[in-house]
Amino acid sequence: MNKAERLFHLMSLLRSRRTAITAEQLAGKMEVSVRTVYRDIQALTLSGIPIEGEAGVGYLLQSGFQIPPLMFTNDELQSLLVGIRMVKAFTDPELGKAAQLAEDKIMSVLPDPLKAYAETQPYCIPVIDRDNALRETHLVIRKACEQQQKLVIDYSDEAKSRTSRVVWPLRLVGWGDRWTLLAWCELREAYRNFRFDRMQQMTVLDQTFETTESISWEHYIATQGHGEQ
After folding, report:
1. Spatial contact of 125 and 82, defined as CB atoms under 8 Å apart
2. pLDDT of residue 209
3. Which residues contact 105 (CB under 8 A, 6 or more apart)?
4. Which of 92, 105, 185, 207 has the lowest CB atom count within 10 Å?
């Protein structure tokens, strides 16, 4: 994170608070040293940002200082927060961190009534440690989809038969109670859905692939292909 990004993040954190936050808490959220937080607060203060507080006590933006509020309804705001928290709970660590930054930015520009509503909204989607391995699987597959890299998957089907497949990862598909990888399977020469929880091992190959008119997410949707193997 460069200095400009760090200062913006610091401003977002300060804007999102109605009570003072210490330099140690800010350092933890920003993953920087306390000394860096002190320097950045000084830089913001010198640039005219009205930050109240002091070392050892905590910092708070002066009352009344905010950029124009985002005009969300209560339901719009709740839908955003639920989505963000589902990303943190059910996808990969990198997206989870990005989701938290997005939440900080949203909270930083809300007017007080919406901020109070956000703090009491009823949905709770916990991030559970036992799902860490699944979140790492998400990360590997997402990167392979984005970079169009082939994967080798050691996979157990419903009958517990194990096979090794070379696949072209196309999309991560959520079904509510499970996630699957929609891919083109070189062994079957067809589209297949592979459940994350049945993947025994996975390797990203140096080989890349190019989608075609007959092998792509759009073609899959158009032909309503489906199936798990």
Report:
1. yes
2. 98
3. 12
4. 207
